[in-house]
Amino acid sequence: MNIYTSSFSIARKLDESKFFVVSIARFSPRWHSGYTCFEFAPSAALLKQYKEGLRNDHYTNRYIKQVLAPINVYEVFQRLAKMAGGRDIVLCCYEAPFEFCHRRILARYVFEHFGYQIEEYYA
């Protein structure tokens, strides 16, 4: 089992028998009928601040402090792995690959704290 990040536009096309598509967005698209992991989603207030011009570095710091630091990230991934049943996990939000977004902040956080590399799935 591998863990990836991706955008909804790419994840929508994935074979769900091979991939466990997980929304980590505060608000998921209507077509997404899979699991939503609100533990990794930014708060509505943080999203609003970003849309109003919050700088990327400030958003990153607040996302880590408000969302990731208070939870046991490892336990969340353990739960997702059980739910995935051996399928690869794809953590999704709206931004296109290589655009600034919280899924890449999460991936970097996981690497820095647990040494696990989460790649972007964009094929």
Describe the structure.
- The structure is a single chain.
- This protein has helices at 8-11, 44-51, 56-68, 73-84, 102-114, and strands at 3-7, 19-23, 35-36, 88-93, 119-120.
- 41% of the residues lie in helices and 16% in strands.
- The protein is globular, with a radius of gyration of 14 Å.
- With 123 residues, it is an alpha/beta fold.
- Helix 3 (56-68) packs across helix 5 (102-114).
- The two termini are 18 Å apart.
- Strands 3-2-4-1-5 form a five-stranded parallel β-sheet.
User: Kindly, what is the distance between the CA atoms of the first and last residues, rounded to a whole number of angstroms?
Assistant: 18 Å
Percent helix, as a range, is: 40-55%
- Mean pLDDT across residues: 95
Poorly predicted runs are none
Question: SSE layout and pairings?
Answer:
Blueprint: E1 3-7, H1 8-11, E2 19-23, E3 35-36, H2 44-51, H3 56-68, H4 73-84, E4 88-93, H5 102-114, E5 119-120
Parallel strand pairs: 1-4, 1-5, 2-3, 2-4
Keywords:
single chain; 123 residues; alpha/beta; 41% helix; globular
Brief overview:
The protein is α/β, with parallel strands linked by helices and 123 residues long. Helices cover 41% and strands 16% of the residues.
